[in-house]
Design goal:
253 residues
C-alpha cells in the first residue's frame, strides 16, 4: 500500500503539472487546449511512450484511491487520522481519485475517457435538476464546493499539509512549505470558482451555467486582474504538482 500511495502521488502530481502548464499557455493566448484532467491525459498521450505513461498514471491513481479508501475505513497514520471528519475527507478524496483513474484507464484502453470537465459538469447539473427539489440540491452542492475551496485555502495557509509529511530535510523545509501553501491556495480558488458557477446555475435554473475546471480557469482571465490571475493560479497548480512529488518522497508512513 505504501508503494501504491507513492506511485499514485507522483501520478497525481504529473496531472497537476500538466493542467497547470496548459492553463499557463491559456493565460498567454493559447486557448486551443483543454486545461483539465482530460486535456492533461491527451497531452501526456502525445509524448514519447505516451500510451504507457497514461496507463501508468491511471494505475497510479487507482492505487492512490485504494490507499485513501483504507484511510477512510481504518484511519490515517497522521495526527487525528482516526477522527470521523478525517475519514470523511479521505472518502471524498477516494471518490475523486476513483473517477480520475477510471477516466485515465478508459482513455488508455481507447474506450473513452479524457472528456471535457465542462461537459461533465453541465451533464451532472442537468441530472440533479431532474431530481425532486433538484434545483435546491444543486445550489447546496455548489455552496459545499465553494466551502471546500475556501477551507482548502485556509488549511494551506495554516500549513495543515504538514500533517501528512514525515521528516523533511531541514534545508528543504521552507521550499516544501512554499509548495504546499501556493498549491493549496490555487486549488482552493479553483474549487471556489467552480462551486460558484454551480450556484449560479441553480439560481438561474440553467445547467449550461455550470462549469468544469477548464471553464473555471478561463473565467479567471475575465476578472479585473486579467490573464495574470490565471497565470498565477496556473503556476500554483504546477507547484502543487511538485508538492505531491515531495509528499510521495516524505510521506508520513
Amino acid at each position: 500500500m505504501e508503494a501504491a500511495a507513492r506511485w499514485g502521488l507522483v501520478a497525481y502530481g504529473v496531472v497537476h503539472l500538466l493542467i497547470g502548464a496548459l492553463a499557463l499557455r491559456m493565460a498567454f493566448g493559447d486557448h486551443g487546449r483543454q486545461a483539465d484532467s482530460g486535456g492533461a491525459l491527451r497531452e501526456l498521450a502525445r509524448q514519447p511512450f505516451g500510451g504507457f505513461l497514461v496507463w501508468a498514471v491511471g494505475v497510479g491513481l487507482a492505487g492512490l484511491a485504494l490507499w485513501r479508501l483504507t484511510e477512510a475505513l481504518l484511519g490515517a497514520a497522521r495526527p487525528n487520522g482516526h477522527e470521523p471528519k478525517e475519514r470523511l475527507r479521505a472518502a471524498a478524496r477516494c471518490a475523486v481519485l476513483a473517477v480520475l483513474s477510471t477516466s485515465a484507464i478508459a482513455f488508455a484502453a481507447g474506450s473513452g475517457g479524457g472528456g471535457s470537465s465542462d461537459e461533465q459538469s453541465r451533464d451532472l447539473t442537468s441530472r440533479v435538476f431532474d431530481l425532486p427539489v433538484g434545483r435546491w440540491l444543486a445550489g447546496a452542492l455548489g455552496l459545499a464546493v465553494v466551502g471546500i475551496g475556501v477551507w482548502s485555502v485556509v488549511r494551506a495557509l495554516r500549513h495543515a499539509f504538514r500533517e501528512e509529511l514525515g521528516p523533511v530535510p531541514a534545508r528543504l523545509r521552507r521550499a516544501v512549505d512554499a509548495l504546499g501553501v501556493a498549491g493549496g491556495v490555487s486549488r482552493g480558488l479553483v474549487f471556489a470558482v467552480a462551486g460558484g458557477f454551480v450556484v449560479q446555475a441553480a439560481v438561474r435554473y440553467d445547467p449550461d451555467e455550470a462549469k468544469g475546471l477548464d471553464d473555471s480557469l478561463r473565467a479567471l482571465a475575465g476578472t479585473p486582474a486579467g490573464p495574470w490571475l490565471l497565470a498565477a493560479v496556473a503556476l500554483g497548480l504546477m507547484l502543487h504538482g511538485l508538492f505531491l512529488f515531495a509528499l510521495a518522497r516524505w510521506h508520513r508512513g
